[in-house]
Every structure is written in C-alpha cells, then in structure tokens.
Amino acid sequence: MTKQLPYSDAELAELIRNGDAEAFRSLFERFIRALVYFGVKLTGDQEESEDAASEAFQKLWQKREDMRGYPEMRAYLFSIVHNRSVNFVKRRSMVKAAHQTIQAEGETHSDSSITTRIIQAETMVAIHNAIDKLPLHHRDLLHKIYIEEQSTTDLAKMLGTTPAHIRTSKARALASLREILSDETLLRSCIVFFFLFSAK
C-alpha cells in the first residue's frame, strides 16, 4: 500500500480537483476500508460492498471538478455506497420473494401461464442485456427511471436540468435501445417496448 502523503483535507481536495492521481490514491487509501465496511453492514455481502466502494471512487474521479471540498467528497463516496447497497438489498429481496412465490404456487400453473412467465423472464434478460450495451449516460438514465423509479421532475432537480431535457434524453436512450433490439423477434420487441413505454 502506498504511504499516505501529509496532505491537509483542503489540500487533498484541491489536488484531486486538479486531477492529481497521487492525491486521489491517498484519498482511496484513507476511505476504502471504511466504505467496504459500511457496505457490508448494509448488505452483508463482502464482494458487493467492494464493488460498491470501487464504483464510488470511479464516480468521484469523474465528478472531481464539480466537488467543492473535502467534506463533499467524503459525503459523496458514502452516498454512492449507500444508494447502491440499498438497491442491492431491494433486488435481493425481490428475487427471494419471486422464488418463494414460485415455490408456494407449486404446480398450479397451466402450461400457458408457465410459457408466459418464461417469455417475461427472457424479455427482462433481453432488456437488461440491451441496456448494458448503451453508453453510460443513457444506461444510468434508464436505470434511474425504470429500476429506481425516479420521476422526471426529481431527476431534473438532482441533475440540475429541466424536465424537458430529461424527457429528451430519455427519448434518445430509448431510440438507441430500439436499434440494439432491432435484431430480436417481432414478438419479443413488442413485449419489450410495451413494457418500456407503459412503465412511466
């Protein structure tokens, strides 16, 4: 591990804002263990918490020029880990609930009902695979809209823009998604876009 340099908090923040990699490495060493520990306490999952901490530092580096100082950088790191951990726990709970529902229902489904569920499952896989191929800004936007279920107004406030800009960005992201899905079967495409445009 690299020895931490004797930066003050204010000096560290200013150097990072200016793109100093050594200062950023010092910040990483200062917070990585705390962030992972924080994530484990929220999720109970070591690997997920390590990924969340890594993502937090990646996003901080990308937004370093917008940070006003050390306290904001520190708060930003923990907020990223917190938000990702909460979403992880929600997804895990949803998966667990789905498995419990399937087990409880047993063999009561008709063949047509089972087929429908298979199509739905394959469709969701197609959606997520397609979204993963989008540029990062489109992927983040669709995730916030359809997974986190954030409203256009809330997103506009959070990103410091207008609802009209969010709607335009959403339309562009969906247009890119349509291109990726263009080689799917007609039935699947219809299901996918019914889901997307009926979501909200």
UniProtKB/TrEMBL annotation:
Entries under InterPro entries matching the protein: RNA_pol_sigma-70-like, RNA_pol_sigma-70_dom, RNA_pol_sigma70_r2, RNA_pol_sigma70_r4, RNA_pol_sigma_r2, RNA_pol_sigma_r3/r4-like, WH-like_DNA-bd_sf
Keywords: DNA-binding, Sigma factor, Transcription, Transcription regulation
Entry annotated with the keyword Signal: no
SUPFAM superfamilies, A to Z: Sigma2 domain of RNA polymerase sigma factors, Sigma3 and sigma4 domains of RNA polymerase sigma factors
The keyword DNA-binding is assigned to this record: yes
Source species, domain of life: Bacteria
Pfam families: Sigma70_r2 (PF04542), Sigma70_r4 (PF04545)
All residue ranges annotated as the RNA polymerase sigma-70 region domain in the record: 27-93, 130-179
Family the UniProt entry places it in: Belongs to the sigma-70 factor family. ECF subfamily.
Name of the protein described by the UniProt record: Sigma-70 family RNA polymerase sigma factor
Protein source organism: Pinibacter soli
Upper lineage: Bacteria, Pseudomonadati, Bacteroidota, Chitinophagia, Chitinophagales
